[in-house]
Records
---
Amino acid sequence: MTGVRELHIDRPERRNALDAATIARLRAELAAHAADPEARVIVLVGGGTQAFCAGQDIKELATLDRPGKLAVHRAGQELMDELEAHPCLVIAAIEGFCLGGGLELALACDVRVAGASSTFGLPEVSRDLLPTWGGHHRLGRVVGLGRAKELVLVGRRLDAATAVAWGLLAESVEDGGAHARALAIAEAAAAASSRATLARAKALVTAGQTADPRTARELDALAEALQA
């Protein structure tokens, strides 16, 4: 698959929870793909079918002192930022539960495809916690402020069909088919565009969410000049 790379979590015994070692490995692999001029699209996959990612590994967290907890949490935030800013298009292939930090991980990706039985939500506030890996700000950009408040403050969970209707998912497929569908989308995108065009288009879309109209137009003009 020319231009397509895969990123695997592969901790199904822990519902693909992110411990310090896994966060470090994922960040290293993302950096390697960023340095690879042939890489255009990345498909992010969780091991097994029970959950896409359970967020931060709570068992590991319980063994750490406060500085250790803050360090792992910061590394997780940096992983999300690196996914969002990565020059490659990043597609999340989701099966099963996509809750809490798992949803925050998916939100940092550009496109999300999920099995029909997948479930989505941010239950932290209902447990007297906070979604602080980017859920507060990324979710509103994807589904709108009112719906983001419903998910964060009320703890509503969405099925895959509703997630598609809300714009959280690009599409829902048969259970077990998210990986194959994500690869098909990735292959089509990699074949259609150069690495530079994909990277610039992604950066423009992301910047346009927060830039004022004049700045957005200037960014468009600069990007067009670079394409010439």
---
Amino acid sequence: MWWVLALLTLVWGLNWPVMKIGVSGSALHPDAYPPLSFRALSMLLGLPVLAAALVAMRIPLALPRSQWWPVAKLTLPNMMIWHAIVIVAVQQLSSGRAAILGYSMPIFAALWAVVLFGERLGVRQALGVAAAGAGVLLLLAHEFGRLSGAPVAALAMLVAAAIWAYGTHRLRRATMPVALLTIVFWMTALTAAVMSLLAMFFELPRWRMPPPHTAWAIVYNAVGVFGFAHAAWFTLARQLPPVASSISVMLIPVLGTFSGAWWLGEPLHWQDFAAMGLLVAAIAAVLIRPAAGTDR
């Protein structure tokens, strides 16, 4: 089971530079590809892989008609908005910076818990939120301060992370007579349909066969992310201790940042190192539960 978690962390962490290559190209292949079309193709090809995984696990694919609307309401904050914003924003940002901003999600989840459900932040959690806020402000200030910066894309990533965090709360609290992975399959299917419509509306004149570097990035996303990672994450989150999943979440932006620097030659500034350190500390403070009787 632990090797599955390790593979999951690797797949998601490396996917940040993979997405960047898929939609923006690289030094060897500087050929941008329409981002919404990239995401739509990835999901459409990933759906059969995810369906095969559910069949292998003997999980029913059928969704009762009474659950169509509840699943649709969960899909909007959990997948549709996140995937649409991220794939467009990653064209404008470095893959590492996008990963750091995107994985501020656990911090927003802690804030939503206070606002929506009346939970109280302990001392460690409050310090974690403050640390994450400082890291995000460092990155935003750097984006606003550079002539070639992309502050709008950076802000959009934060909005996507906040909405994803809200959706996570709603998904955890949903009581539906359907297997969780069945819900994940249909959320992916609905998102694929919406991404396809958006791609048709905004990118139809730019449609073409994906070049080789984009094609393999699409396959990576289809098989690795939508075929494996989604199913593995929701399965493991219910079986492993919270500390294990927390460590995975902390390592993903770190892996995304350094793999982007090594693979794509993306420059790392001191703001990136500082923000990454602050975010990892913040996620640890928010997600890892202390032992009974210790300070919260």
---
Amino acid sequence: MALVELNQVCKSFQAGEETITPLAEVDLSIEEGEFFALMGPSGTGKSTLLNLVSGIDRPDAGTITVAGTEITGLSRTKLADWRAAHLGYIFQTHNLIPVLTAYENVELPTLLLKLSARERRQRVELALEAVGLGDRGAHYPRQLSGGQEQRVGIARAIVAHPKVVVADEPTGSLDSDTSEQIQVLLQRLNRELNITLLMVTHEAEVAAIASRQLILDRGQFREREAVH
């Protein structure tokens, strides 16, 4: 069974008198351990898809199942609990809290889980090591480069051992060299930790690192042959 499954999902928005439908009765299956990239121009609904899969938004019709749980049927409270335990989110602009250290930023998602202080510390340290920042835990965001900040954001996304990690333009605010480093890191985390990744990007060269690539066009998906 697929780890992520969308069945006949529809989502529309009103823009004045116009109805915009970024997703129109779409079906999608993502297998466990898959690195999946979604492309398409701005405004086509790529981020809408991430928000639906992560339970931030709800579809107008259809069902979304992640790791055997139909999240479209959960209450807001249960959805928040499910998200904390099963989903990691990598943002384009890092979204780190400036007054917290790198360690404390990564620790945040674990505070929602039933973990001992020792388990929490182990997870945070392992996550920072996984992204190559084991020696930067005491640094504040202002003391880190843009690439290091994004690595902290990635560590935060994986610290709770989520079933799936969604990444919204994870290299969009980085220079080309730093972007390449983050791409290599995402590939390594997917391969070595078997993390299921759902990434949105408008850059073909970034999408090319994924094992599977789709283009969202007029509310429907079409396959793009992976290039390696």
